[in-house]
Amino acid sequence: MSAAVLKNRILGLTGGSFLESDYGAERFTQLLASRPDIVAMDYDTAPPTVRLLQPVSDSSQPVTGQNQRIRPDLWRAMLDFSSGLTYVWKDGRAQPADSDSVQSGERVIPTITADELRAWRDDFVTALAPSLREQERLVDWVGSRGNTAALPARLRGDWNRHLKQSVYGRLVDWFGDVGVPVDLVQTRQRDSSKEERLRPFLLRAISRMSPEELAQIQLPASVVFRLFE
């Protein structure tokens, strides 16, 4: 695969936390070149390609965790075939194109077609062992434009994961082909509003404590350490 594809997959598997600088490299290709025991670099191709030298377990279908999801702009650009819009990669985001942006050579994101979505559904159903009662319902779902709610309840979570992995794989391949490293997943941010509400509540509670109650407060060592920094 190309170096860009490999980097995108690492970013996906690490929730976007991967940095070459953590391993003493300024560029990803520099990091790869420093590990000839693991990968071989071919600089005769454009972009450079990478070949794995050591066998590892198959991770060609990375599964994002509960706190990760594919970036909403990329998800919409990949699946919004019904609107007829064309999406382009511009200014670090997937966005609907206007005629000028397409004519100016902006990179057009390959939104799936209805036939391709039907093929993904067919692949999903083929891998199942549905009951006789479910088979007719699944055949209708594959050939329709219905949503996930049309599936039997027990299969909806599996289909959502299959769809996410299919979209992820298509994005990895496309960004690798155009040579643009990008973080495809979005990690949910911690809700700071709870902390903002908790802090004044604790201050009010402390102001009303008796000396005996104050003496029972236990502070984490990290907090005490920050007081003396």
Structure description:
With 229 residues, the chain is mainly α. The chain has a domain at 3-62. The chain is 48% helix and 10% strand. The strands form 3 sheets. The protein has a 3-stranded antiparallel β-sheet with strand order 5-4-6, with helices on one face. The chain has a two-stranded antiparallel ribbon with strand order 1-2. Strands 3-7 form a two-stranded antiparallel ribbon. Strand 1 (39-42) and strand 2 form a beta hairpin. The model is unreliable at 55-66 (pLDDT under 50).
How many distinct helices?
Answer: 10
Structural class: mainly alpha
Q: How many extended strands?
A: 7
Q: Main β-sheet, in a few words?
A: 3 strands, antiparallel
Radius of gyration: 24 Å
Estimated share of beta-strand residues: 5-15%
What order do the helices and strands follow?
A: HHEEEHEEHEHHHEHHH
Strand order of the largest sheet: 5-4-6
Average pLDDT, to the nearest integer?
A: 76
Overall shape: extended
The first-to-last residue Cα distance is 48 Å
Task: Name the helicity range.
Answer: 40-55%
Q: Provide the low-confidence segments as ranges.
A: 55-66
Short structural description:
With 229 residues, the protein is mostly helical. It has a domain at 3-62.
SSE arrangement:
Layout: H1 3-13, H2 28-33, E1 39-42, E2 49-52, E3 68-70, H3 72-79, E4 87-90, E5 93-96, H4 99-103, E6 107-108, H5 114-126, H6 132-143, H7 153-178, E7 185-187, H8 192-207, H9 211-215, H10 221-227
Helix pairs in contact: 1-7, 5-6
